[in-house]
Amino acid sequence: MLIEHNGKRPVVDPSAYVAPTAVLSGDVRVGAETRILFGAVLTAEGGPVEVGAHCIVMENAVLRGSKRHPVAVGDHVLIGPRAYLTGCTVEDQAFLATGATVFNGARIGRRAEVRINGLVHLQTVLPSGGLVPIGWVAVGDPAEILPASEHDRIWRIQQKLDFPRVVWGVDEWRDSMLPDVLERYSRALGRHSEDRILDEQG
C-alpha cells in the first residue's frame, strides 16, 4: 500500500517489488531491484526513508524516519523479519538479522552485522565489519559491544548519549514531562488522518 503523507508520495523504482501488504508512507524511496516483503512498514514521520538498490526488507520489518533523523539504507543490505530501524544510517552490504533494533542517530558500517535480537543504541557507531552478537547491545561511539546482562554499564554509556534531547528534543527527562511529550507526539501523528491511499497509477 502506497500512502501520500504530508504531501509526499513514495517513489519506487520500476524494477523493485513491494508486497501488497507492505506499507510505504510519505517521503519513501526504494531503489532498483529491492524487495519489500509482506507486512513491512516504511514510514516517513517528518524525515525521509531511503532504501538503496538490491536490498531485501523482510516480513514485518519497520523503517521509520523522523525530522531529526532520516533513515538511509545503502545497497545490498538485508533487513530481517521484525527488525526495527528508526532514524539511522545503514551502509552497503550490512546484515541486520531477525529482530535487530537500531535507534536514532546510529550508524551501521559497511559489511557490519547485527545478529538475531541485537540492539544498536542511539548515537552509536558500529564500524565497518563490526558485529553485534545474538541478543547483545552496541552502545557509544565508538561502539562498546556488551551482553544485555551488563545493564548498569550500558546505562552509564547510554545516559551520556542523551536520549531525551536526541529523540524528544527536551533538555532533561522528568516524569512530569511525559504527558507534554506524548501530547506533542500525538498531534504530530494525528496528521495521518489527512493521508491519502494511492492507487497503482498514483
Q: Would you mind describing this structure in some detail?
A:
The chain is of the alpha/beta class and 202 residues long. Helix content is 15%, strand content 32%. The chain has three helices and 24 strands. The protein has helices spanning 151-161, 163-168, 178-190; strands at 2-4, 11-12, 17-18, 23-25, 28-30, 35-36, 41-45, 49-51, 56-57, 62-66, 71-73, 78-79, 84-86, 89-90, 95-96, 101-102, 107-108, 113-114, 119-120, 125-126, 131-132, 136-139, 144-147, 196-198. It has a ten-stranded mixed β-sheet with strand order 23-22-19-16-13-10-7-4-1-24, with helices on one face. A seven-stranded parallel β-sheet has the order 2-5-8-11-14-17-20, with no helix packed on it. Strands 3-6-9-12-15-18-21 form a seven-stranded parallel β-sheet, with no helix packed on it. Strand 22 and strand 23 form a beta hairpin. The longest helix has 13 residues, at 178-190.
